[in-house]
TrEMBL record:
One of its GO terms (biological process) is transmembrane transport. Keywords: Lipoprotein, Signal, Transport. Belongs to the bacterial solute-binding protein 1 family. It comes from Bifidobacterium myosotis. InterPro entries: Bact_solute-bd_prot1, SBP, SBP_1_CS. CDD domains: PBP2_TMBP_like (cd13585). The keyword Signal applies. This is Solute-binding lipoprotein.
């Protein structure tokens, strides 16, 4: 089936995807390998693969896949989100049993497990055939030493969500395009009655690294088992200077953590006017906000230089295949991963408001033209596509980034309580990361 034919189906509903999957199977039309029998062509019986993920809507994918692949069953286990899942996976890998055939990993965790030689290379199963459709950033996010260790299924190009009504009340005529304009808008928002702020930040490690990425900083370097941690570069200082001054002037809400009930309430009542994060937040806002529906808009991230278009990512992940799982099930596991990342599963993903990092999606004219009533009828996909294309691809994650983010609160987090400056917090974080790297056997510079 042609790429054009598949793109024409990208906007179908989940129910329609199931029907299409059945038709595709009966007609002998589908993604590569769609008609193979589990572990291999001609193999009798059913192959059951295990998938670890915390995605709450995974059932839609499994149902659609199993209808079009009747000889493969997918058993889903929620081993916890982020660090909880990674700990369970580490325990299984160390024990040599209970290892899943597939596991969802944030991009930074792909690097963590790949550098330890605990993931299978996707090059061994057909990744090269679909590689070029993934964005350059997505390819980079799953690659270690030139080898791909996952199939990207979600992405997080950063955008600025802003409440247009709050801006209008504050006298902000248009979305800030530079960080200088963003600060000016912050001052106007702070002058409103009540306790309004332009945004919130409590020192989350993932957010900080994304902001540094967008500023052009490269605080981490990885060369085999040699790693570097350095928060002293000029682009790090560029971000710190801007952000520290806003914190000092109380322009940022440093007490409200993202994802809390209080955070959602403040977004809905206008107490927090912007969110700087991955574009994946679109679907969550639609589900969790009611009063402010129609008030929100998307815009590119503010820039340090007028006219620039630099961007970073926040979030996103891939399906990976751990080593030590049942070798006889690897083909079936890859088949599901490829279906999810690049086959008919893309339509299910889009129907749920997901953002697959595929060039074929980001350039699809119909998808780009879709308007979203929650965002005041804005063609949000165009903003998201541009944001994805502007993500720089030379940022590197530490091979223990998940751990790094988990301890950021002990150092950088203290800057949000006025106990240290951001620079001091980053320096303390760097020292802790260097020490941990040495303990884990890395050569640290």
């Amino acid at each position: 089936m042609s790429r054009l034919s598949r793109n024409a189906r990208l906007r179908t509903t989940t129910a329609e995807v199931v029907a299409i999957g059945l038709i595709g199977t009966l007609a002998g039309c589908g993604v590569p390998g769609a008609n193979s029998n589990g572990a291999g062509a001609g193999t009798a019986g059913t192959t059951e693969i295990t998938l670890w993920t915390w995605q709450s809507t995974i059932g839609d994918f499994v149902s659609a896949f199993e209808k079009s692949h009747p000889t493969i069953k997918v058993k889903v286990t929620n081993a916890g989100a982020n660090e909880d899942e990674y700990m369970q996976l580490t325990n299984a890998l160390n024990a040599g049993n209970g290892i899943p055939d597939l596991v969802y990993l944030d991009f930074n965790a792909v690097h963590q497990f790949a550098i330890s030689d605990q993931l299978r290379s996707m090059n061994d199963y057909g990744y090269a055939d679909i590689r070029d459709d993934f964005t350059k950033a997505a390819q980079n996010n799953v690659s270690v030493n030139g080898q791909p260790y996952g199939l990207p299924i979600s992405s997080g190009p950063m955008v600025m969500f802003y409440n247009q009504d709050v801006f209008a009340k504050a006298g902000v005529a248009q979305a800030p395009t530079t960080w200088d304009e963003y600060r000016e808008a912050a001052e106007k928002v702070a002058a409103l009655k009540g306790n309004a702020h332009i945004t919130n930040d409590t020192g989350d490690g993932g957010f900080l690294t994304s902001m540094l990425w967008q500023a052009g900083a490269k605080p981490f370097s990885v060369d085999g088992t040699t790693v570097g941690v350095d928060f002293g570069g000029k682009n790090v200082r560029k971000f710190i200077s801007m952000w520290q001054s806003m914190m000092d002037d109380k322009l940022i809400d440093t007490s409200t953590a993202m994802w809390t009930d209080d955070w959602w309430r403040k977004l809905d009542d206008g107490s927090i006017a912007t969110v700087l994060t991955g574009a994946w937040l679109v679907s969550s806002m639609q589900k969790n906000l009611s009063t402010s529906a129609g008030s929100w808009r998307l815009a590119p991230m503010p820039q340090y230089t007028a006219g620039a278009h630099a961007n970073g990512e926040n979030g996103g992940g891939a399906l990976a295949m751990p080593k030590g799982s049942d070798d006889s099930k690897t083909q079936a596991a890859y088949e599901f991963a490829e279906w999810f990342a690049h086959g008919d599963g893309v339509a299910v993903n889009l129907a749920q408001g997901g953002l697959p990092p595929l060039n074929s999606v980001l350039s699809d004219a119909d998808w780009l033209a879709e308007k979203d009533e929650f965002f005041g009828g804005q063609a949000t996909h165009q903003v998201i596509a541009d944001a994805a294309k502007n993500v720089t691809t030379d940022f590197e994650y530490l091979p223990y980034m998940a751990y790094a983010n988990s301890i950021a609160v002990n150092s950088v987090g203290q800057a949000y309580h006025g106990k240290v400056t951001l620079q001091q917090g980053l320096d303390q974080w760097a020292e802790a990361l260097r020490e941990y790297g040495k303990q884990e056997g890395f050569t640290v510079k």
